[in-house]
Structures are given as C-alpha cells and as structure tokens.
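Note to self: the last two entries modelled the partners one at a time, which told us nothing about the interface. This time every component goes in together.
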Amino acid sequence: MNRDIDVAVIGGGAAGLAAAIKAYENGMKVTIFEWADELGGILPQCVHPGFGLEYFKKDLTGPEYIERFIDKVENYGIQTMTNSMIVQIKENNSDNGKKLVVCGPDTGLIEAKSKAVILTTGCRERARHNLNLPGDRVAGVFTAGTAQRFMDIEGFMPGKEVVVLGSGDVGMIMARRFAQEGAEVKGVYELMPFPGGLTRNVVQCLEDYDIPLHLSHTVTRINGRKRVESVTVARVDKNFDPIPGTKKEVKCDTLILSVGLIPDCRLPKILPTDIGIKLDENTNGPIVNELLETSQSLTFAAGNFLMVNDMVDDVTLQGEMAGKFAADIIKNGHTSVRWKPTIPGDEIRFVVPHKVSGLRDVTFYMRVEKPMENVHIEIPEIGRKIFRMVVRPPEMVKMDLNAEDIKKVDKLTFKIRQRS
Amino acid sequence: MTEKVVIIGGGITGTAIARELSKYDNLKIAILEKEPDVACGTTKANSGIIHAGYDDDPQKYPVRAGLCSKGNHLWHDLTGKLDIPVRWIGSFVAAIKDEQIEVLEDLYERGIKNRVPSMKILGKEEAGKMEPNIPGLKAALWAPSEGVTSPYEAAIALAENAIDNGVTLHLNTEVQAIDLEKRKVTTNRGEFEADWIINAAGLYGDKISHMAEIYKSNAGVDIRIHPRKGEYFVFEYECGCPVNHIIFPTPTPASKGILIWPDAEGNTVIGPNAQDLPGDKKEDKSTTAEGLDEVYEKVRELVPTLPPRSRCIKNFAGLRAELPHTDFIIEGYNAGFINAIGIRSPGLASAPMTAKKVVDLMKEQGFSFSKKDKFNPYRRKIPRFNELSQKEKERLIKRDKRYARIVCWCEGVTEGEIVEAIKRGASTVEGVSFRTRAGMGRCQSGSCLPRIISIMSRELGIPKDKIPLKAGDDHLLIGNIKALRRRNE
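The predicted structure of the combined assembly is written out below.
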C-alpha cells in the first residue's frame, strides 16, 4: 500500500467512489478505505431499479449503478483498501497534511499520510429503541436496511408475515421486496399524515402490490414469546399520541423499521480523536462551505455523511464536487474569502451548503418542514421568488443560484411562503 | 472422599457458588443450566450495581443485610482477579427536601450497623460540587465503596474460572425431578448423581425447592416466588452522563426510587421501576409504555439534563425473584439440599458472600473441605481491541490478524474478539454481545448483525438461519431467500 496519499477517501460507497474518481481525474494520488470486503456501500443490496435517472438518464438497479463507478476505479487503478478502517485522523501541522492510522487484516495497524480527507461513510438507521418502542424483545424486529442486506446479499429470508413501520423510501421498497419473495405484507404504518418517501415509491411499491398504507398510525407494542407474533397498532392524534380505542393487534412474525436515517458522523469509540468538524444539528452532518469542505481545513464531506439524500444521483454529484475541490485546493491552495452564511428561514429545516462565497454558482439542497402546495421559495436578500406546485419533506428541494447573485449579498435566507 | 455437587442455575449466584466450591479438592461440581448460556435470567437484566449495603434493614432483612457489604468487599478483589469490568464510582443518595435529610441519617445509621465503610453525609456545597446537575440538592449520603459492573460479564467470568478449576457446566439442561433419597437429579439430558444439591435457580427457585419437597423455609416462610419487573433505559455513549456517581433519590417507605448512573462503559442508564407480577409471569420481560414513561419522568425530575428519549439505545426489563418476606433464603435442609433463593437486589453484591455461606452450610452438615493446591484464582477476559495501547494492538494483530478487522463500529469490536467469544461458549447473538459488546452500541447492531451471524455460522458450522438472537428465541432468519416461493410451488 502506498502510504503517501494526496486524497484519502473514507468510505467506498456512491459518494466515495465519485470523489475518488474526480480527484484522480484531477491528477491526485487517491486511496479509498472501505470497511466492508467489497466496494459499493449500500448499493449492491439495492436490487430494485430507480437509480441513475438524473445522472445517467437511465433507469438502473443499485448494483448496475455502482458497478459503473467500481469499473472506473479499477480501470484507473485507484488504490483501494477494503476491510480497512481509519481509526485515527490527526492534523499533521508540520507539512500541512493529515496523519491517518489504518486498521485492517491485510495491513495490520499502519500509518499513512494524506493531504486531504474526504469523509463519505454514509448514514445509519434509527432503530427500535430510539423510538422507545415497548413490548417483548424478541427476534423478528429488523431495520429495513439490515433486512435488505440479509435478503439480497446474504440470501436469507427474515420472515413471512411482515408489518412495516415508517413509509420512508427504504421501508416501502422493502415492503415490495418481501411481497416479491412471497411474504405476506400486512401493511405499512406511518406516523405522519403524509408518506415519508417519494411519491413514485408509494405507487410502485405499495399501490401496485396492494399493500395498504396507514397514515397517522403507529406501532405501540411488539408482542411475542420466541419471535414476534403480532404488533399492536393505533391511530395517532395531532400530537402523535395513540388515540384510545383505536388499538388493534396485527398478526405478523416480522416488524421492519424504516423510521429515519442519521449521518454517521461521530464514532467516539473507533475514532476517539476529535476530528474537529463542526456539525449542523438539523442535518446531523457537518457544516460545510460550497466546496463541501468542513470546518476542518482540507477535510471534505459528501453524500449521506453530509446529509441524508433522497437520490443516489445527488450523492454522486456531491462526491464529485468534494473530489474536484479537494484536488483544486491541494494544487492551488485556499482562496481567501469572506464566507456568507445561508440561513434556513420559515418552513425550511436545513440548507446545505452552510457557507457560500459568490465566487461560483452553487446548488443548494433544502428540506422543508411540512408538505405545502402552491408556494414560493423566497430568498429575500436577492429578491428571488421561485414557484413550486408542491413541496414535501421527503423530497429534497434543490435550487441553483449563480455567482453574480450571491456576490451581491452578505447572507442568504431561504423560506417558504404560501402564495396568496 | 470426593462428593458430588449439583448446582442448579448458572446465574450470578450459581456461578459464584461453583467458583467458591472449586477451591476444594474433594468435590466434583456440575452446574445445570436450562438455557444455552449462563446469565440468561435475572442476572442479565438488572442494574449491575454492587451495592454498598446501607439499604437493607438488619431487623427486617437479616440475610440481605448480613451479606451485602461483605460481598461488596469481596468484589473489590474478585473483579481484579477475574478481569471483570467495574467502576467503583460510589453511590450518592440525593436529598432535595429538608425532611429527606432525616432519612439520610437513618440510612447512615443502618450502613454503620451493616459495616459499610467510609460513608459520609455531605452538606449542600460539597454534594453540589460532586453532582452539579441535580438542582435543589440539599444534602447527600455518600458511600464510596459502591460500584457498577456488568452482571452478565461477572457471571461469565465466574463460570469460566470455575470451569478452569474443574467444574463442569451443562447447558440446555433442565432439571425435571429431584430424588433426595437416591441423591439423584433428573434432567432432559439424563440423570446426575448428587451428594449435594444447591438450588440457585433464580425465578424458578420455588419450583426446584418444591421438587425436593421443601415448601417452607426453616423459619416457616412459604417458598413461593413471584417476579418483580423493573424497566430501564440505556442511552448512547456519546451523550455522556449528567451524573458522576450512582444516584438514588431519597427512598420513601414505599420505594427505593429510580436511579441514574454511568454504567461500567460510561453509558447513562436509568431504572428500574417496580411492578409486581403474578407467579406465573416469570417469562414476561416486556417493557411497557407506562413503565418507560414512569422511569424517564421520575429521573428527569431529579436530573433535568437527562439525554432525550430519542438517544436511547436500549430499553429492557428484568425480573427480580421475590419471596413473600422479600429477604433471601440461604439455608440447608436434610439430605444435602441447600436453597440459595429469593435472590433479588442486592443479589449481585452479595453473590461472593452467598457462596461462602453455602460453604458454611455444608460444613454445618458435616462435610469437611480439603483445599486444592492448584486452585487458579485468575481469569483473563477476551482482549478488548479498543481499549488497548497501540503496541498491544500491534502485538495482538501479529498473533491473529482477525483482531484488525473491526466488525462493530459503534463499540469498536473486532472479528478476533467475536471468534474468541464463540470459542468460550457463546452460541447466540446475545452471547456474543455480552462477551464482546458487539452490537451493543448506538446503531443497535443494524450494521454488524449480518456480519456477526456470518462469523457465528462459520465458526459453529451451522447455517445462518439457525442462529438464535438469544436464549429461548427462535432464529432470526426463516430460511433461504426463496424459502417461501419454493414452498408455494
């Protein structure tokens, strides 16, 4: 293994591979570090289509989508360390780079040096106890992603009568996946009064398979002795509290949880050294500027580590940006700029990036607080109003602004206004 | 002459007794455990606190009061010899009302009677310095000898050390009948001869005692056990802990109160509440919405800066074995039968002393013990990669490169540790977790579960769909991905 690296990419999923490819194409010596024994991240287990519609203008499955990037990494001969984890990142002030400690069975515990680090380790799933979901603690409760891995990587069936809690995209996709393999999917239960995932998944995963979607419902208890035997479900009121008298038992042997994803930014036990990046409590990911550089110089973030994205196409674009800008800064140094903050205003939960310069055009990613129809997205500082028929929390709002506009102001506030 | 001992139950009490008896030459000792692992009952689901011993009124609960503080003292030595994770952080009974200070004084007096060392009543200022996150603190009772451990790791360590000293452990072995005259214990796995039968069967202590036709204690207490349920929250390691010690509210006549403490790993834990269940609910380890609310809200009254409920990584419930008089029964009867039952709190703290009491009871019945020359008092835990220095890590990897493959991110557990846990007897996912902490972090095993199952399948030579989550559970997976399709054909 070459231990003198320009760009160290941590995490070999969609964001990491795109970052590595771009950095390499910009002349960098790149190494990808991947925990698993194969590249690809989550995509090899996403056997359904719907990937690449924007990026490749083609409808691909997860394995097909990621294969294109893995092939490129191999063709370029980019150094790839699988079964490897970075267990330490230290700022190496003497020569303005970073010292990494790599841990893996092939290398043992070794040190490497890199000029920049790109963090692309993705996100994790919220699980049963984050919800304080009471009842029996028995086999048969899985997060959607874990069930997906068991089915489409390991080749094992987790259960035959399934209830899904949460209508996020993964939850709906897994409802369909279970149905395809002959399981009886009793229903998808969603706490909110609206679905948690993309509309196309409501249609293609639930409606097309006659799987009922119960909005404003939740699971209040898990019941079973040796394995899940049933779950208790109930309708919820405006405060999301179960309404007395609406409880009923649904017989099942499996409960699949699709109740949210959280960027996996801190590994206090694995990576005990404070890697010094400031986090945004709304995204749970790092605070970044338009170069996707975190508060730590030459440490970049992209993909679901940066914020939970809806579409892999965006993850890829963010990875490419991080790879390109890492290479730019390594070659040309930092440009001194006065950063202008971006501020989430009314009905906006977050805006990424958090800081912009006015030196270049920027794509902004936003998530709204609640579904609204017939609205304007307003940026009062530059007097911009953009009409949208519908905005929904599960569907990221994307907006491009050009450098000229950004240059004129010293901050940007994004808000949603109902059109009168 | 060598005599045969059968210990029924592989919980903290049974394993402590086994280890104590394994110091002697003229005993052949077998532990019979109905589950596939030790520590599967009350031992695995409690606070893990090694109580100081001021809590038990020696008039009302003479057995508990007599064992706890001495047991605590023994643990200070034993945790070192057996390499059991422990933090002697001390306990702190918080008074936030003037009238509670009197209660602290009563507890102090009781502690003195029970020979609890180094206790102190702290005034407002000193108490507030030690625990700045308890608003309105007026005074506190401070007992530095109290500690927190991992109760299942303690039982595993005791069992491993006992086995090393010649004890045999029979898992999946459920006692069905006891014949005291013929000195015979019948199980689902055959018969065991027994000159001595020691009942350490936890919640089922009454059932075993009844098999030996012992229905009342020597003092006439009905041997009838009902479970008392307690529910808990464990929070993410990353949240840290708002308190530095084991914090009890001032007890009321009705309740010892719900506590908060940093566990042996530094995670915040709160619990338990107390709910008495009927005697036939000995398997009801479910949590309840009401119970969880009660635990969280009560602790938040005392410590408002508790981590939010969404940062909880484990809710669980445990069952304590309660006899009608709520004291332990540790006594011998005719024909070599000994009960060590009704072991509720402070059963963990008392365990090493309970074991010594069993030795005394055997002596009283005329057995003369002969010490072993070659008793090994030490046991090493599975190396924890994450806790080692750089040099130690390198050495470990050199020996076995699987120690360089991190399987569980949250807790930093390597494949080497998991393989070693399986070698030492883990046959369920929970058994692996208890020995290594794999899957016990904030992602609640979402990332590492498929990997743990793959490693278990490989090491144990059984298919992935035959791996159980924990004792008594069905398998996690129902078969090949096409299992349902093929069946439907």
